[in-house]
Amino acid sequence: MIADPVAVLRILLLPGDTPFEIEPLGDLPGSPERWHIAAARRQAVIVRCPLDPEEGANHAAVMEALGNARFPHMPVLLGFAGKATVESEPEGVTALQLVPPPGAAEAAIEALAALHALPIREGLDWGCAPGDLYPPEEVPLHRLGFTADERERAREPLLRAREALWASPFGLAHRDATAGNILLASGQAWLTDFGKAGYGPQLFDVAAFLLTSGIEAAGRRALAAAYARARGQEAAATVDLVDVLGILWGIEELLELPRKLIETLGDDAATAHLKLSASRVEKGMRQAAGSSPIAAAIREALWPA
């Protein structure tokens, strides 16, 4: 139990002796919980209180700011039980659990576009420059098993990709918009878990969702174009940029995979989700979903036909 029951029930305007059941949504300390409340009209809420105090505080602050802005594509923040947030539970599932329902991927892209358009300065790293967040360091491709020749051929196009990242749109971003953090239903989508949200490259959000959802290249191309239209951007250029930045984001994600697997030891479901996501990312990075010569050069260097 990660929150005081009396405080949670008070938020729901229920007596302190109302019966409830708690369903952990993970096997590790700090995992979110689903509270089933046995009231006159049975309901369930999600209680979230991450172990990392900064992540928990950031999640709460961003949710509150988005709620004040009436952002519709997220669970409703019902209140605070100490440091825990009490949230509504949308009737959706993630793309790690099943194939996205009709219109769900499109709704997720619309939700990300709406988030990125908000004039909100909340969350982490505001005041940083793109080069501070993503410094011009050589990508340690040796940790992913690439040979010296492959790394040498990829060095120059990866530098150009990093320059494209610095020039891409930065602003309010989810910064962990993988399939597991976006709930989907037919024609609907809700963003969840804002612990890492703040200032960042907005197209990384788009790439993260598209790559981890298992969507094939043609579908990713169409969805990136839909995002461009929603943001008033030139479609072909945005499609190519999402494809290039998807490779950069995917490499970063795979480099972080060993640490994430260690952190989820003891939670078999979380570990399985990480492995599924990683396999989708690796497959997606190899498949061209745009016409960028930079992306083509990286793929030719790292994954020659």
Description:
This protein has 305 residues and is an alpha+beta fold. The chain is built from 10 helices and 9 strands. It folds into 2 domains: 5-88, 2-Layer Sandwich (Phosphorylase Kinase, domain 1), CATH 3.30.200; 104-302, Aminoglycoside 3'-phosphotransferase, Chain: A, domain 2. The chain is 48% helix and 14% strand. The mean pLDDT is 95. The longest helix has 29 residues, at 235-263.
Detail the topology: elements first, then pairings.
Elements: H1 5-11, E1 20-24, E2 33-37, E3 43-48, H2 53-68, E4 77-81, E5 84-88, H3 104-117, H4 130-133, H5 148-167, E6 170-173, E7 182-185, E8 188-191, E9 198-201, H6 202-212, H7 217-231, H8 235-263, H9 268-286, H10 293-302
Antiparallel strand pairs: 1-2, 2-3, 3-5, 4-5, 6-9, 7-8
End-to-end CA span: 52 Å
CATH superfamily of the largest domain: Aminoglycoside phosphotransferase (APH), C-terminal lobe
CATH fold-level label of the largest domain: Aminoglycoside 3'-phosphotransferase, Chain: A, domain 2
> How do the helices and strands follow one another from N- to C-terminus?
HEEEHEEHHHEEEEHHHHH
- CATH top level of the largest domain is Alpha Beta
Q: Which blocks of ≥5 consecutive residues have pLDDT under 50?
A: none
Structural class: alpha+beta
* Count of folded domains: 2
**CATH structural architecture of the largest domain:** Alpha-Beta Complex
With strands numbered from the N-terminus, the spatial order across the biggest sheet is 1-2-3-5-4
Q: What is the count of helical runs? A: 10
Can you give the mean pLDDT?
95
What is the quaternary state of this protein? Answer: single chain
- Given the C-alpha coordinates, what overall shape results? globular
Query: Could you give the count of β-strands?
Result: 9
